[in-house]
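Schema walk-through. Below, the input block comes first and the output block second. Nothing else is stored per chain. Lengths vary across the set, and this one has 317 residues.
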Amino acid sequence: MTSIAPASFGAALLAARDAAGSQHYPQATLYVVATPIGNLADITLRALHVLQLVDAVACEDTRHTQSLLRAYGIDRPGAQLLALHQHNESEAAQSVIARLAAGERIAYVSDAGTPGVSDPGARLVAAVREAGHRVLPLPGASSVTTLVGAAGLVAAGDPGSGFVFAGFLASKAGERDAAVLRLADEPRSVVLLEAPHRIEALARSLASLGERKVTVGRELTKQFEEIATVAAAALPDWFAASRDRTRGEFALVLHPRSAAVDDGAEGERVLRLLLAELPVKSAVRVAAEISGAPRNALYEAALRLRKDGDGDEAVAP
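--- output ---
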């Protein structure tokens, strides 16, 4: 988090009371509150008001949330902070539901961003709704929408084609490569998240997408924020150019494939990947489905690749 002295939020707390205090905040309600992804100033006035108003705050990490609240000048005793994270979410949800049944207002925050988006919160919300209690969301910061807004995503002939949120891909190389291969056929933009210790491995997997553009967002909203758009094939070299580029938290956007990309070239690229794992007929069939290239042309390409020795024994028909 970007450090800001607590006293600097005194005026914000007063503004939060004036701007949001007259609104209705029902009891027996779970308030799902988005918190900053880096810069502490990216908090809404309504969030500040609710975090002061509720009877307790359920949170992914009580120590982190306590520090966050104190940075805003909100001091809550430890007994009012309830640990609810990915390892205990189902069990802890029952404790929250019991408090809601008693008429309490409970807020839920994850460590950063919007709960339930690659963070805990979804199971809690589902359980609370199933129990018949109200869920009131407070929108705010999200690394997903932050990077999408800065990526300049324009699909071929359709600038409003939307995007898919894929989050974290598998950590195992084979599963990750298979996921990337599936994403190659997705016509919309794709948003990914990754941790620093796996970002270079993800870059190597994405490199198979060739000239497809990828926008990388590193340390979004923080002091050393970096946003760059490069071809997928160039991603490993981009990260290798500076060790600082592998530090921090990452969001990435895979841009829509350009209409200028030739289906034949794309089909052969996919085919090369598939031939390492599949027989010719299966590889040709899947490559045709992914790329849209004609099966006959792909079959001829597979035979040529086998003749040239570009592949392994999996290419035997």
